[in-house]
Amino acid sequence: MRLLSFRLGDALLAFRQDEIREVLLLPTLVQVPEQPELVRGFCRGADRFWPVLCLAGLLGLERSAVTAESALIFPRHGMGLGESDFALLVDGLDGSVMTTDALLDAPSRYTWNALCAGVAQVGDREIPVLQIDRLMHEEERLRMVRWSQKEVARLASWPETPAETP
User: Fold this and answer.
1) SS3 141
2) Cα–chain center distance at 25
3) What is the pLDDT of residue 19?
4) Domain ranges of the chain
5) What's domain 2-159's superfamily in CATH?
6) Per-residue pLDDT for 69 more than 80?
7) Reduced to 3 states, what is the DSSP secondary structure of residue 19?
8) Cα–Cα 20 to 30 A to 58, which of 52, 85, 137, 162?
9) What is the C-alpha separation between 98 and 40, in angstroms, rounded?
10) What is the pLDDT of residues 105-142, one digit of tens each?
11) Burial of 3 (0-12, 13-18, 19+ CB in 10 A)
12) Tell me, what's the pLDDT at 165?
């Protein structure tokens, strides 16, 4: 199995590569008024906006700041994040795609254990592998989908590009 590793603060984590549709480096985010705490803004694509969720916030960690090293990870459609497409903000990519034969059970020291598919042992490093469809409960997913669909419709109706923040 191939893994894409990324950083959140001091933590090195990974997703299975088959759960990832796309990765975007150096994102510019559009801010909207009264966005939920987990939403860091919207990423403008060629023909639409995508809500950007703070992965650190979903894991109960300190919210990530958007920096020159930040990246957006776009899950494959239908990976359990609702009917809308979302991007997940991470602090940076580790720069490697790793291959591992199997995942070990996640040790109890990880506070996000319920979100882990397991742990990859890569050399002397243990890397928790998160499972995308476990990141949000169904009720929270539906609330985010309803809110983001309304905001995306409003953003799409703007005649000019809204103010962007790096």
Assistant:
1) helix
2) 13
3) 87
4) 2-159
5) CheA-289, Domain 4 (2.40.50.180)
6) yes
7) helix
8) 162
9) 28
10) 776 666 666 788 888 887 788 888 898 888 876 667 66
11) buried
12) 44
Amino acid symbol at 124:
D
- Cβ atoms < 10 Å from Cβ of 112: 18
Cα separation, 2 vs 35, whole angstroms:
34
**What is the biggest distance separating any 2 CA atoms in the chain, rounded to whole angstroms?**
53
| Residues forming a β-bridge with 121 | 126
Contact indicator for 71, 23 with CB cutoff of 8 Å: yes
Write out pLDDT tens, residues 133-143.
888 766 676 67
| Cβ-based neighbour number of residue 64 at 10 Å | 20
Comparing C-alpha atoms, which of 2, 47, 40, 74 is closest to residue 164? 40
Tokens describing residue 96: 């490697």
Contact partners, residue 124, CB within 8 Å, separation at least 6: none
Average pLDDT value for residue range 12-24: 89
**Report field, pTM of the whole predicted structure over 0.70:** yes
b/e for 65-83, b at 16 or more Cβ within 10 A? ebeeebbbbbbeeebebbe
